[in-house]
Here is the input.
Amino acid sequence: MYPHQTERLTGALEQSSLAALIGTSAENVAYITGFRSPCPGVFRTVELAVFTPQGVALVVSASNLSAVVAGRLDVDCVRTFHTFGASAVGPPGVQGQHPQGISAAASTDLADALASALEQLGVDHGAVGLDEGRLTYRARQLIAHRLAGFEIVEGSAPLASARRVKGPYELECLGRSLWVAEESLDAVVQAIERGTTEREAATLFSIEVIKRGGWPDPPVVAMGDRTAIPVSEPSDRALRPGALVRFDVGCAYKGYRSRVARTAVLGQAAPPQEALGQALAAGLDAAIAAISPRAAAAGVWSAAVEAIRANGLPKYAPHRLGHGIGLEAEELPELDSRSGASFELGEVILVETSGSEVGVGGISVSQTVLVTSDGGRVLNRSHAGLILLD
Here is the structure.
């Protein structure tokens, strides 16, 4: 674990008066231990990560033990539990133990393995914060029964708060993820032409992401009047002259996420298209200019909305205009009118303005912004204005 994560998680423990934090979501497990399950989309596996002042533990099914060993994780304790068909083979690894030896001592279920990990770390009483995101009802019951001597409280909020401020390694991964997404989108923009379908453009983006070492999120590519649909699956709609193309794409790199919204037009943009794009760009610029440490998220929302209304969209009233981004595509804080959050130094924020008009279509544009002592610093390198396609 990097010093930054240790500092943030220790602060979360102290602020909430907890003896331990237990993560179950893939993102929280990765944040605490660095472990990412190799098969989250294939099998329903559950991993637990435990953070305490005394050390860090990882609880995994026996079927994932070889992946733990191969990852050479910097954790103090690994506990396993049996699942159907579980086996573990491989070279010596965690704490000098052979994987088969750990598997032989595996607990009968997740709750017993968690209790064993807490005991190994010297935690035998007090309040523990449990993120229940990946737990089934049965698993929650087993844990509550097995940890009857503890006070179990909600732990997802302290973990989400700890993850808000990014450390050097996280910023490096986020920057690389954004680079992969933007370079891949640029390849699509260079290749797209009259007759290209939404499905073809989306497929090309996914291929380009994988070529650059990332893993694509399902891309949104919409053309013509379909650009007014906020989220849509790519179809066989083909690009025609004068039509807008809205891209909302992203990827993951080492677990860290990126998202890029851009809009293009084939040929010369019509005046209504230009006007809509300029209004949304003004709002985006105003939001970025308002970002600074301790600035209110609701104030940034207001700055963007006021700028957009002043530039030709008087009734513009979006629910939100962005959010944090990191191990998840959407993290705290949220940029909306009701948010009570203020920005912290080192947060990474995805700011997006989007809108649509009848007969014009929809336009979206986003920037990823790092909160610095000098204000918001845009991490994107690509052109954010309306893109003209030849």
Notes: DSSP finds eleven helices and 16 strands in the chain.
